[in-house]
Amino acid sequence: MYQAETISASDLERYGYCPLSWWLGRQTQMHNQDMDEGDKAHREKADEYRRIRHTEQAAWDWERMVFLFSLVATVLAVTGLSLMRIGDSADWGWLLSLLSIIWFFAVIAMLYLSAQGGRAIIKVRRLQVAAILGLMLMAVAMNVGHLIETDPMVSMIMEALALLWLMAASFALYLSLNAAQQAKEWKWEQGLVGDIHYVGTNSSPIYHSETYGLSGRPDFVLEIDGQLIPGDLKTGRTPRGPLFSHIMQVAAYCLLIADDSGKRPPYGLLRYGDVEHEIEFSEELETLLLSKLEEMRGILRSGEAHRNHGRPGKCASCSRRDACTERLV
Q1: Residues of 264-299 as b/e, b for ≥16 C-beta within 10 angstroms?
Q2: Which of 22, 138, 254, 274 could form an S-S bond across to 14 if both were Cys, CB 3.0 to 4.6 Å?
Q3: What are phi and psi of 6, to 5 degrees?
Q4: Rg (CA), the chain
Q5: Quick one: how far is CA 324 from the chain centroid?
Q6: 187-190 long-range contacts, Cβ below 8 Å, gap at least 24?
Q7: Tens digits of pLDDT across the chain (329 residues)
Q8: CA angle, corner 201, sides to 265 and 3, nearest 5?
Q9: Which helix (H) or strand (E) holds 15?
Q10: Within its chain, how far is the Cα of 292 from the centroid?
Q11: Alpha carbon 215 to chain centroid distance?
Q12: Where are the domains of the chain?
């Protein structure tokens, strides 16, 4: 556990670009128009991702309402049947038992589909609680006719109410499917796969690792095949391939996800506009990442940083070149 200053993934990206540029940025806290435009582009993209996430959440919420409406409708229908009196010799027990068996297997199917759909475990547990409650209510509904004497009109009212709740379930199903389809179309437009688990905005929680003295806020985290995959969005020009500094930033997000969830992401995503790269989070990349963090801590202790490249083009595009004593141009 590190007691020294926590290093952010953004600082790591700046250090990967140039240690001296990163150090000067810490001293002067410079800001420029390019950064403002980049922040604006990030906010717009984050708003799009957040809209998709909220729409997916709405689809899941309506999906659960289908379950609850159907549960109430079934209990009302069975109660109404139990209250019916069609001859003293009429035995409705076999029909009620059949309905209970059908309902039981329907509950199992819904639980399975919810788990397969990548739902959070707490949601599945809530569905299990609702299923158990539903089976208990079914048992009461099956026997209420033997416990009380009622007017036949009551059973008809029960059946009518059951029909209304079934109609509500159908409407909730329509809303769920509509929201899911809308989210699917938006995700296709953005080139996203899987469920959006997290969107990095100014109000989003920051991932923090005390183990590595590292923090960061990914632009997004996707849940793909049960794996949490962090992603980073880059604005501006699209390079021929992933830049080293950007790879380091994505690796930092992978390390934060691994430390937070206990499950190592196999890769991270780096997006330049419509171009996406998968950055494998290998053991070698993690070792390189940790070595860079140690280098940064060494500079923080010594207070001395130097340029680590001989590329005039990099110096020419650096926003801190005017204050740099080691610039090449």
Answers
A1: ebebbbbbbeeeebebebeeebbeebeebbeebeeb
A2: 22
A3: -75, 140
A4: 29
A5: 41
A6: 187/52, 190/48, 190/49, 190/52
A7: 555 678 999 999 988 888 888 888 877 654 454 444 456 666 777 778 888 888 888 887 887 787 777 777 777 776 666 666 544 444 555 555 555 556 556 655 554 554 444 444 334 455 555 555 555 555 555 555 444 555 667 667 776 777 777 788 778 878 888 888 888 888 887 778 888 888 887 788 899 999 999 999 998 999 988 899 999 988 778 888 899 999 999 999 999 999 999 999 999 999 988 889 999 999 999 999 999 999 999 988 888 888 888 888 788 888 788 778 878 77
A8: 65
A9: helix 9-17
A10: 29
A11: 19
A12: 7-30+193-323, 55-190
Structural contact between residues 42 and 235, judged by C-beta atoms closer than 8 angstroms: yes
Tokens of 23: 């150090």
